[in-house]
Structures are given as structure tokens and as C-alpha cells.
Design a protein that fits this description.
One of its GO terms (biological process) is intracellular manganese ion homeostasis. Keywords: Membrane, Transmembrane, Transmembrane helix. It is found in: Endomembrane system. Its main location: membrane. By secondary structure, the chain is mainly alpha-helical. It has one domain. The protein has 10 helices and no strands. Helix 4 packs across helix 7, helix 4 runs antiparallel to helix 8 and helix 5 packs across helix 6. The chain is elongated and about 80 Å long.
């Protein structure tokens, strides 16, 4: 680590800087949603292109089918992601109601649960009792502690709508790229397919490398893994189209 990076890191961990940073409301990252949407969008449209090419369909058929699948699947995926987020929030709300009811009915039992949770974290003796008393003094803190420690649930920063939008936007933007060669006049069907293949490969590799940069992974390893998975999906679509065309006697 360079001296400048170390100084910046130390400045960010001064008491006032820590308080200011933690005072900002948490927002769940939409990067996983965007990565998932981008990969799925590219796989979806290039799979259509590969299947159409394997079946010997005209380029305009691949373009129409590709855009139709792009919009329909992108919307479906965004709605699914939204519903998943809503289900998670509903689960948290249900667990919160249960815990508040238990605190009202059996407060000593719930207090013992808090005691056991922090005992497992290494607290003991008088310090353990002080922690339990501090947590149980505030009903909201008590409930949130139970949700995190007992259920493993947290809704901090969770926004189903934002996640759905990130998924849909990435799906549409990235998924459009393999279709671009089919919108260009003057290219033969083989050239269009090869250009689409090149764009799809670059997208798979690029998404994997971007993901690795954010999460501190090996760029080439992550990029190549994403490339292999995307290529495999496209290969299956091409084989399906080719075999279907042969079986149906086209």
C-alpha cells in the first residue's frame, strides 16, 4: 500500500470520519442485479441469434426474435427480481411482528436468547449482562438484534424497485449488443453471426472483469469464467437450432 493510500485510510478511520460515514443510510448495492441482468441479457439474445443461425433462418428473423425476447425476458426478469425483494421484505416484517409479540408475552425468554447470542460471541460475566441490558432496554434495538442474530435477516437499504430497474436496464443495454450486427445493412449472414459472436464474447469477458475489479477477484480468471459460461449457453442454442432444423427436414 502506498503512503498516500495509507494516509487516506487512516483519515477515513478517525472517530469523526467513522461517525459521519456510518450516519449515512445504508443502500444495498445494485451491482449484483446489474451483473446478473447484463449476463442474462447477452445470453438470451445471443442464444436466439445462435439458434436462428444454426437453423438457417434469415437474418431479419433473428433480429425480430432477438428484440422480442430481449424485451419480454428483460421485463420478466425485472419483475421476478422485484417480487423476490418484496418477498424478502414481507419475510422481515413477519419475523418482526413475531418477535415483538414474543417480547410482550415472554420477555424473560427473549432476554435469555439475547444473552445466549452474545455469550457465543465471547461476552461473559458482568460485561455480558451489561450488553444484554443495553440491547433489551430499547425495544427496536432488541427486535433488530433478534432479526439479525436469530433469523439472519436485514432489510437495510433494500429496494426491490431499484434492484428491478438495475436488472432491466442492464438486460436491455447489454442484451442489445449481440443484435447490432443484424441491424447493419450489407453484411452477409455469416459475417453478421461472427460479428455478433465477437461482441457477445467481449461482453462476457468484460462483465467478468468488471465484476472482479469491484470484488477484488482475479480479472482474467473471472472474465474467462463468465466467457466460458456464456459461450456454453450460446453453443447449446446453436446445437438446438441446428438439430431441430435437421429433424424437421428444413
Amino acid at each position: 500500500m502506498s503512503p498516500q493510500s495509507r494516509e487516506r485510510l487512516l483519515a477515513e478511520h478517525q472517530p469523526r470520519a467513522v461517525r459521519d460515514r456510518l450516519a449515512v443510510p445504508t443502500r444495498a448495492s445494485t451491482l449484483p442485479d446489474a451483473v446478473l441482468g447484463g449476463i442474462d441479457g447477452c445470453v438470451t439474445t445471443f442464444a436466439v441469434v445462435s439458434g436462428a443461425f444454426g437453423a438457417g433462418f434469415p437474418p431479419h428473423v433473428a433480429l425480430v426474435l432477438g428484440f422480442a425476447n430481449l424485451l419480454a425476458d428483460g421485463f420478466s426478469m425485472a419483475v421476478s427480481n422485484y417480487e423476490a425483494g418484496q418477498a424478502q421484505l414481507a419475510q422481515i416484517a413477519s419475523a418482526e411482528r413475531t418477535e415483538r409479540e414474543h417480547i410482550d408475552l415472554v420477555p424473560e425468554g427473549e432476554r435469555e436468547e439475547v444473552r445466549e447470542m452474545f455469550r457465543k460471541k465471547g461476552f461473559e460475566g458482568e460485561l455480558l449482562e451489561q450488553v444484554v441490558a443495553a440491547v433489551c432496554r430499547n425495544p427496536d434495538l432488541w427486535v433488530q438484534t433478534m432479526l439479525r442474530e436469530e433469523y439472519g435477516l436485514s432489510g437495510d437499504g433494500l429496494s426491490p424497485l431499484r434492484a428491478a430497474f438495475a436488472t432491466f436496464a442492464a438486460f436491455i443495454v447489454v442484451g442489445t449488443l449481440p443484435l447490432l450486427p443484424y441491424a447493419l445493412p450489407g453484411l452477409g449472414s455469416t459475417a453478421q453471426f461472427l460479428a455478433s459472436l465477437g461482441l457477445a464474447g467481449a461482453v462476457f469477458l468484460g462483465i467478468g472483469m468488471v465484476k472482479s475489479a469491484v470484488y477484488g477477484l482475479s480479472p482474467w480468471r473471472s472474465g474467462l469464467r463468465t466467457l466460458v459460461m456464456g459461450t456454453a449457453a450460446a453453443g447449446l442454442a446453436f446445437a438446438t437450432g441446428f438439430l431441430a432444423q435437421g429433424l424437421l427436414g428444413g
